Amino acid sequence: MNRTYSDKIPSTIERDSNGYYLYRWDIQTEQRDEYIGYSYYEVTVWPTLTANKILETCINELWGTDVEAKKLNDYNAALLGILDESYIDIYKDFLQKRKELKEQVDSDFIAYEQMQDELNSEQITAIT
Fold first, then answer.
1. H/E/C letters for each residue in the chain?
2. Which of 39, 58, 77, 108 could form a disulfide with 83 if both were Cys (CB 3.0 to 4.6 A apart)?
3. Cα separation of 69 and 92, whole Å?
4. Rg of the chain taking only CA atoms, in angstroms
5. Tens digits of per-residue pLDDT, 12-23?
């Protein structure tokens, strides 16, 4: 998966005018000479937006849809002695990266929901 670049700070979750959402993570500041920009990973998520849907989309973009099942099969084969033990470490590494991504998505989604609740509350207050 390639990084996306921008000259402005991107929002983590953004609703597009076409009705879908953009989720961005691993946002890093990039400095080149006098230019300051930002790089990040980005996926498109279709409504209804949930943390699980974001995570599933990220996993599919990063590793593909069948990678987790293949790594699990290799792990089990290594436990049975059919494959060498390096497959155990490969699967553990995958699970650790997946866990870190899930924690990031969950945290970002909670922050997004809180921000949406605050915006909705302000709009209701402005109306009344």
1. CCCEEECCCCCCEEECCCCCEEEEEEEEEEEECCEEEEEEEEEEECCCCCHHHHHHHHHHHHHCCCHHHHHHHHHHHHHCCCCCCHHHHHHHHHHHHHHHHHHHHHHHHHHHHHHHHHHHHHHHHHHC
2. 77
3. 13
4. 19
5. 999 999 999 999
